[in-house]
Amino acid sequence: MNLAIIGAGESSRLRAEGLKIPKHLIKVNGEHLIERTIRIARENEIQKVYCIINSHEQELQDYLLTNNFSIPLKLIVQDTQSSMHSLFVLSPYLMNESFCLATTDSVFLESEFSDFIDYSLLHKNFDGTLAVTKFINDEKPLCVDLNEENIILKFSDSKEGYSWVTGGIYYFSPKIFNEMSIALETKVTRLRNFLRLLVQNNYNLKAFPFSKIIDVDHIQDIQQAQEFISKFKRKRI
Fold first, then answer.
1. pLDDT attached to residue 156
2. Is 55 inside a domain boundary?
3. What is the pLDDT of residue 14?
4. CA nearest 43: which of 111, 105, 102, 108?
5. Pairing of the two strands 164-172 and 143-146
6. In Å, what is the CA distance from 61 to each residue of 27, 105, 218?
7. What is the SS3 assignment for 215?
8. Are 131 and 143 in contact (CB under 8 A)?
9. Residue-level pLDDT at 10
């Protein structure tokens, strides 16, 4: 299994609050966010990382090109319209097998990520598995309606009546790229709307619950993420 990292956003909210470095280079518990994501993937037997970033963050580009992450990393530098378009740019590298997709601003427990991977591999008959949580700190969460078997029925931008939200971690079959041309032709924008398209077109998506996933979009989220993972820090071998 390979990992695709979508990191082409420009961290506008954090920069407006005074952050001087790319979001992905924020340190939590002594690790850069993107470094943490890559390490956790490697420790869960991910074979290769494909990462897309924008052309405006030279510091991040230099970091990714000059550090050894002990796993092959293919970096694509390209400005994209949305997270969905970033995924589509990475699609030529992801067509041959199921893959994990992540955003680096999602902070989660390592043990729960391992459980997520195991669960996804056990449910390969589904077209995808999405990490969900009842902890909502995102300003614009994507809410999820599930049935009793954790099959995703629909998505909503409104929080009213919903308990679960997506957490920025996904496992997909490459079959989802069959909908890529339709999404582009119908001017679907943003990853959340592509997920809606998949459900509308009868793709089977399952949800896997995480206790908490913190979306680092504001300065205050950094300390919250630090406290969260420090509380559950697992001794590394």
1. 96
2. yes
3. 81
4. 111
5. antiparallel
6. 16, 17, 22
7. strand
8. no
9. 67
Structure tokens at 146: 């599930």
Tell me which long-range contacts 120-126 makes (C-beta under 8 A, separation of at least 24).
120/171, 120/208, 121/1, 123/206, 124/98, 124/173, 125/204, 126/173, 126/204, 126/205, 126/206
Residue 180 backbone dihedrals phi, psi, to 5 degrees: -65, -45
The reply to whether 47 falls in a domain is yes
When divided into structural domains, the chain yields a total of 1
Residue 37 CB contacts under 8 Å (≥ 6 apart), including other chains: 3, 5, 102, 104
The stretches of 123-236 forming alpha helices (DSSP H) are: 180-185, 191-200, 219-231
Does any domain span residue 13?
A: yes
Per the listing, tokens 């999404």 go with 183
**Residues 93, 184: Cα–Cα separation, whole Å:** 19
Mean pLDDT of the chain: 93
Is the predicted pLDDT of residue 141 greater than 80, yes or no? yes
- pTM to 2 decimal places: 0.93
> Which CATH number characterizes residue 20's domain?
3.90.550.10
List the Cα angle 56/58/63 in 5-degree steps: 140
| Type of residue numbered 188 | V
Q: How far is the C-alpha of 196 from the C-alpha of 179, rounded, in Å?
A: 11
Angle at CA 37, nearest 5°, toward 114 and 48?
Answer: 85
**The pLDDT of residue 8 is above 70:** yes
